Amino acid sequence: MYAIAIHGGAGAMPRDRLSPEAQQRLRAGLQSALDAGYAVLERGGSSLDAVTAAVRVLEDDPQFNAGRGAVLTRGGTVELDASIMDGRSLRAGAVASVRHVRNPVELARLVMEHSRHVLLVGSGAEEFALEHGMSLVANEYFRTEERARELAIVRAGSRVSELIPVPGGTVGAVALDRDGNLAAATSTGGMTNKRHGRVGDSPIIGAGTYARNGVCAVSATGHGEAFIRAVAAYHVCLSVEQRGLTLEQAVREVLHERIGALGARGGIIAIDARGNAVLEFTAEGMFRGCRDSRGRNEVALFRDP
Ligand code: ASP
Q: What is the 144 CA–ligand 1 centroid distance (Å)?
């Protein structure tokens, strides 16, 4: 049994704000990320490679708030956060506030595999990237017209939120491979109009991302501050492992009770050791998909797909 699930962010965007063409483009973007990750699993690759491949596709797709097309800070620049975790060894790698790394998930993986650290930030992370042969890109590479417009709208209403009516949010993937190894990865530009230096839950192991073999792999999206305070991703794993909750119960409890109690909303994707995927959200919609070796293959944007 092998399986992968992905998300492209949870948000408050009403369905009627998205044209059928835009919905179609989003579905196609999700499907190609899902297929990229699934292809890795199908040929016997690792869950780590699968989540890296899927997130990479979503980072390169300007529709999503990660890599190219990420949201803008109040200064109009892009600052990216990402993390990855290997459920087999509990190794993890993360980067935050990077401005010149095309695929932050790959840098997070480099941190995990080639440093003694878990989290590197800003110029230190980029120095590490250069030392390991990654080429850097100008910050303008990430910037799109759509995100510039979105920043202007948010500024006019002086809101600080990713939950506004534009497509494409934070991205993430969770996977189980043929060898029973679980992995999770998350990547984001954070929240529109965020302060320079603000770091959300996505690169925080235990908050936005967590994986433990035999239990589950988790990737979150939503109001990052609440997910950090609720230690959301770890909490899902802990509830499955120690309280005997099903994955679905654990995910629902975190989202509806813990995150809800903090006045926040979002979504979680998770996969357990048997390859069951749960894709749950308390926002209006969550761009998502899952595919497994039993034949499940679906992408969806809103509550009724
Ligand atoms: N959780 C992300 C953050 O707070 C944002 C999102 O998921 O949309 O940085």
A: 18
Q: Which of 63, 221, 229 to mutate to test the pocket of ligand 1 (most atoms within 8 A of CB)?
A: 221
pLDDT of residue 286: 95
Q: Which of 73, 170, 192, 209 is catalytic?
A: 170
- Asked if 174 and 218 count as a contact pair (C-beta separation under 8 A), the reply is yes
Split the chain (305 residues) into runs of 10 and give each run's mean pLDDT: 97 77 94 98 98 98 96 97 98 98 98 98 98 97 94 76 61 98 98 95 98 98 97 98 97 98 96 98 94 97 81
pLDDT at position 44 is: 98
Which atom in ligand 1 lies closest to the alpha carbon of residue 169? 8
Which atom of ligand 1 lies closest to the CA of 194? 9
Let me know the angle formed at the C-alpha of 218 by 8 and 64, rounded to the nearest 5 degrees: 15
- Residues lining ligand 1, Cβ inside 6 A: 9, 162, 169-170, 188, 190-191, 200-202, 221-222, 224
Residue nearest to atom 1 of ligand 1 (CA): 224
Residue whose CA lies nearest to ligand 1 atom number 7: 221
Distance 188 CA to ligand 1 centre (A): 7
Q: Is 221 a catalytic residue?
A: no
- 8 Å CB contact between 51 and 186: no
